[in-house]
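Researcher: Structure for this, please.
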Amino acid sequence: MKDLLTNKWLTLLARIAIAIVFIAYAYPKLQVPRDFVKAVGGYNLVPNDLLNLFSIILPGIEITIGVALLIGLFTRAASSIAVALMIIFMGAFATSSILGIEIFDCGCSGSENGTEQVDPITFYLRDIAILIGAIIACQGKKVLALDNIIFKKDSKPIQPA
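Model: Predicted structure, token format:
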């Protein structure tokens, strides 16, 4: 099983898939920031004074992660941050659910009107799938990655003079 999870082609596929997901989810947040601010505010977890700042920074982080994974730069760090974000997102949704807050827009991928209620099972299944993909992307060899060019390890040991 470990060989499968560290397979270079599976980790490449996971890396590209997670990159696309993070970029695709960040794009509408930047297109209609007002809707994202409203969605984040609905969780009642971010202080009102920080909503705008948070709503600007998070999509920037998501795009940075997505681009880094897509080009294979700092892949382990980017996928580790993606894992942490997915855990935070699921925790925020769970906390709001426990507090009895009805989430009409999870804020994940933008909103047409913000009135379509989020199905918790669909939410968690989607986020668990993304989490697993990010964990797989963190494993294995870096195929088709800039990391291999920039951080190339010299295979020959230095010989004494």
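Researcher: Any notable elements?
Model: The chain has a mean pLDDT of 87. Residues 2-145 form one domain.
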